[in-house]
Amino acid sequence: MYLIFIVGTAGSGKSHLTAAFSDWLKLKKQNVTCVNLDPGVLRTPYTPEVDVRDFISIDDLMEKYELGPNGALVMAADLIATEIDSIKKEIEELNSDYVLIDTPGQMELFAFRASGPYIVNELTTDPKAMVYLFDAPFCIDPMNYASNMFLATAVHSRFLVPQVYALSKADLIPKRELKKIIDWGTRTDALENAIEAQASDTKRLLSHGITRLISRIGLSFTLTPISSTEETGFINLHAILMRIFAGGEEVI
To answer: Which candidate, 169, 244, 248, places its Cα nearest to that of 2?
Structure first.
């Protein structure tokens, strides 16, 4: 069983990737479990086999503790850890080839709460990886791209599991912009030149500092362009995950 956590900023396409990648894997005759870890979501574009909302109710928390929506979401994010044994049991009983885990829309509720790493560590001992989504339309601006690099680095440092980088919504931007963003992921000088061309002095210094620090750490941001709408790029994404999980071997 392979666990794939799908993370990224709000609106980057986590739920739609969960739905589309699940359908794609099922066409390859794989058994797939979709897990919803977002207690605040109203609807998902897939039917979750395991759903945190079965264990935690935002409305109940708001009423019981007289919280607003944001306070209830923060409390719910931490309460997920108390239900981890039940969630784990449901996942293991399904015994799927792949488990796609759709993390909360507000990434900080998962990535930057103490409960996040605990959840990742405790959800079975099977191989795990994260797919971090770079939102393509958002990343056209090199400053936005540099900010996303910083967030992706912070997420990696929090969980320390293999992390794959996907450029979501690749169908929504021109091919020349797509190529430019992909180049930024592999060529620090290309990103710095793009920032130099449009940023103010203060922003330029900050972004240069971020990019050089990340480069010094040694992280690589090779982006795999994907489209959940057109189901493109999934072959490449799957191949990268297989190299992590099974040395390139298909699930049998």
So the answer is: 244
